[in-house]
Amino acid sequence: MRAEVAAGRREAVEAAAYRIRQHALAMGEVQGQGYVGQALGAADILAAVYADQLTYRAEDPAWDGRDRFLLSTGHYAIGLYAAFAEAGIVPVDELETYGSDGSRLPMSGMSTYTPGMEISGGSLGHGLAIAVGLALGLRARGNAARVLNFLSDGELDEGSTWEAAMGAAHHGLGRLTAVVDINALQADGPTAGVLRTEPVAEKWAACGWHVERVDGNDVGALLAAFDAIAARAEGHGAADGDGHGAPSVILCDTRVGRGVQLLEEREKAHFMRIEEHEWAVCREQLAVGYAGAAAEQAGEKVSP
Amino acid sequence: MTTTAHGAPRLKTSAMIASFADPGQRTAPAPFGHALAELAEQDERIVGLTADLGKYTDLHVFAERHPGRYFQMGMAEQLLFGAAAGMAQAGLVPFATTYSVFAARRAYDFICLDIAEPELNVNIIGGLPGLTTGYGPSHQATEDVAIFRGMPNLTIVDPCDAVDIAQAVPQLAAAPGPTYLRLLRGKVPSVLDEYDYSFELGKAKVLRGGRDVVLVSSGLMTMRALQAAEALAAHHVDAAVVHTPTLKPFDEETVLRELAGDRLAVTLENHTVVGGLFETVASALVRRGEARRVVPIGLPDQFLDAGALPTLHHRYGLSHDRIVERVLAELG
Asked: What would you measure as the largest C-alpha separation in chain B, in angstroms?
């Protein structure tokens, strides 16, 4: 039985997710196209991570005590830049430079360009292997920071992901959490048709991981999953004081374009094209949807 | 089938424990493992990790001395180098071992993007470089230098012997960026302590002078070049030997100075003649407008045979008697 996530906490994350989506749309409009669909789909996860879960210092992104968030999917950088702006790591004004010459915010996320970006993604299937070494290294140095790796279901095609999954379990990396964005879409089309990865939960469990599977666009469910992992870490049979224990994975089923009806209903594409006149519609739909959801929740509160 | 048609004993492959040391040659055991274990006494950042080849890359010596700093990553080379990058990001100085073929061919993307691009201090230790096993192409890293030379930021070291390795290890750790060491493992010959020599990362050294020929060599071929130079003296040929253990960045100053005259120029490498020492020297000459003939001694551009190592070294021209033959033929 899951403990209910307090409404105030959930609403704060939802508000952060809304702003992350606003930032992502603004960046997408500058480029005229791109990975807006992924950013919208992952916004709730990124908000849960940066507004609720992660320990960091916005003014000192390299602070040694920080939790590490590793973005494998370099093309999701648009979403992470938006989360950085929300977190105060990157100024909101800088977001408009996204993907432009000389910008610190390249289209594919790279650690050598952007403060707060822990690794260079883009070549998929790298993040979890690096996360394993980072978690081993932090533990060896007596640093209790957590390591989170965000990866996509497309990366489950890569053998290196499973090398790392086995390695993490073998070494008992109890402070490592993988967050998998299952949007069921990859470059050549629906994941089910490209290379079937289901049953995903069983695969991770078979590798020795603690598995949570949630609606990745349900903030309450996301926070409950993070809470369950934290409870295991503090409880018996999980991570000991030294960080030894089973690693955890949160499998997040998400919808590409989430929060913007026009994009949710559009034929799904890895690299989404949006016409010039459609951006205003997107912004409007995002605002109306968020206001509507908030009103609905407020209604729920007063109803018996 | 233990004799040839001529009745001579047929040499055996003994693939994984093959040694290129000559019978009776002075050797040192596991120089890499001992050097790393020593270094770790002084530097707590040093860690060792491997992909199921700890015993075969001499890392077991380190593991026995520092068990808490030894990480077995399993037969998973992508994980090995991704994790090494993560450890470096956590402030450690990893030495990651596997065979050269697996580092260069199998894990290239991980070394390139996770280690070289962010210039992390990860030291890649590759066993069985070039032709140091008779096991066949699956284990013969005949093109590892060619593969790695195109990778920005990566320092490439091809040591000659146990002396080179012991002196190189602390310098690899001290170098801020990534390095690749072509490991010689097991009982490794000691040769360079007979010369006025010390390993300096990035430097070529003239081991002996000579009026007629300049042998520019790296790795175990420097040992063969020194033997060939001795043998050539009996033929009244005076051969110099220039050892270039650091292949990248390459010490063009020293090497081009030695190649400035009209002595016969020969490069010797335990590597395909494509993309290794020969082409490094040739491109340096051309870039300076000092074009001249250079004789490449190295492995042919082909997949090599399986067999006994001495047989193969002779077949492909790496043995010192074949070097002598080649130099005499070139001198006419």
From this structure: 61
